[in-house]
Design a protein that fits this description.
The protein is α+β, with helices and mostly antiparallel strands. Helices cover 33% and strands 25% of the residues. The strands form 2 sheets. The chain has a 6-stranded antiparallel β-sheet with strand order 1-2-3-4-5-7. Strands 6-8-9 form a 3-stranded antiparallel β-sheet, with no helix packed on it. The N and C termini lie far apart (93 Å).
Length: 215
């Protein structure tokens, strides 16, 4: 447990260590803390929105497990499910970190103030019996709430981490910038072609005008 820190949710206590991924992702290696010690449960990776041109600014992508987009290529997929047949949480979730800045229940009279949590934009989680190569199912409510609490704590840590801006910039440079260039290159080429065609048309019209004036 050396070099790790902990956080506690209503579903349990977790130890974590933080590292930087190849492209500036923030990787949280998690262990579940029990009375007799801690057991590794996998990794959760957080980085900026993977969409090259997001429709909503500032979203974060929360990925379950290390590796690429393909589930079957990931490692350390987190075992956070409440049911053995759906122990592994798979896929990813986009979340809005500003969810943590507001508390809609706090303004409701007669209600106890609730701690804000991030919401999963897809509204559900997928779980499976094995890390890879097995059918997935929608996670149950207890699993959903437990994972939501864990992700909420990790997003708080991500936002407070002084290394986050540098890592986010690295992710933008190494991942998003090439994707943006790939998407925009054909549009730029099409625009250049249109400009060239218009320039030629303009030259022809000017030549025609000059010819008419000379006559």
């Amino acid at each position: 447990m050396s070099g790790t820190k902990t956080f506690t949710t209503q579903f349990g206590t977790y130890a974590y260590s933080v590292s930087e991924g190849e492209n500036g992702e923030t990787v949280y290696d998690l262990s579940r803390v029990f009375q007799d010690g801690a057991l590794p449960v996998g990794a959760i990776v957080i980085h900026p929105d993977y969409n090259p041109f997001p429709t909503v600014e500032g979203l974060l992508n929360v990925q379950f497990g290390k590796g690429g987009e393909d589930r079957n290529e990931r490692t350390d997929v987190p075992m956070l499910g409440e049911e053995l047949e759906a122990a592994f949480i798979i896929g990813h979730q986009l979340v809005d970190p500003t969810d943590l800045d507001t508390d809609p229940d706090a303004e409701s009279e007669g209600k106890a103030k609730a701690e804000p949590k991030v919401r999963f934009l897809r509204g559900y989680l997928r779980a499976a019996a094995t890390e890879t190569n097995s059918p997935s199912t929608e996670a149950g409510r207890d699993t959903f709430l437990a994972v939501q609490d864990i992700v909420t704590e990790l997003v708080k840590l991500y936002r407070a981490d002084k290394n986050t801006p540098k890592r986010a910039a690295k992710y933008t440079t190494q991942v998003l910038a090439p994707q943006r260039a790939e998407l925009l290159a054909p549009q730029i080429k099409e625009t250049d072609d249109m400009i060239a065609a218009l320039q030629l048309k303009k030259a022809r019209l000017i030549e025609k005008l000059n010819g008419t004036t000379a006559a």
